[in-house]
Amino acid sequence: MRIAILSSALTLPLTFLAQDAPHPERRWSVGVSGSLDVCFRELVINSDDPYMDLLVDLRDDMEEPRTGFTAGADITYDLSQHWVLATGLQYNDRGFADREVQLIATDGIGSPLSQGTLSAKVHYTFMSVPLLIRYRVGHGKVRFEPALGVSADLYQAQYTDLELNWADGRTEERRTHDEYSDFPTWGVSGWVELCASMPIGERFVLRAGGRGRYQLNELLDAPLSAHLFEAGFMAGAALRF
Known about the structure:
Elements: H1 2-19, E1 28-45, H2 52-62, E2 63-64, E3 66-78, E4 83-106, E5 112-135, E6 143-166, E7 171-178, E8 186-200, E9 204-215, E10 224-240
Antiparallel strand pairs: 1-3, 1-10, 2-4, 3-4, 4-5, 5-6, 6-7, 6-8, 8-9, 9-10
């Protein structure tokens, strides 16, 4: 009797591991994905200046979220039937927008010549290398894959797109490039995903769902800095081999 109990105790963990054993074939997958994101920033005060609170209130009144995007290549490895390790290379456009303001063009003596509106979108671009751990839930055709992880973000550029719309129908578009020496070259972002995957045949996999990211480091070393963040809908396809 004792031998039977001991045998059961020893084989139970092996049975559990066998149920969660890695796939014997096609553990790797390579694919592409992209997401349409709503992005914004969280301002951070690094100064005792009492006027900083007023500046934060002013910027909160003037700035609003805008649409960004992410696109790139994905590589995954199935550690088991449930656990998946994911990485890749992603191009990411984050930032925010300035609210539309009214403009009045005048002549040399101050007489109004034309009226219009000015809008601006501020862009920060990064190349990101994510490292995520996914947990595959379910055994049907569609499986859910929540994921957590981080990414190393290589800063690329900052620029602002300006759009002027005049009352007479004219539209002017301009792009200004901004260079700051106090921008960190590398940053770190936290990732969270709540996606679903569906195999197509034996080798193709489709994925879609929600994705969110938050910049863990501050955007720049300044009395008033920010953390960038975004959330959106992502979709992708991969080939297993």
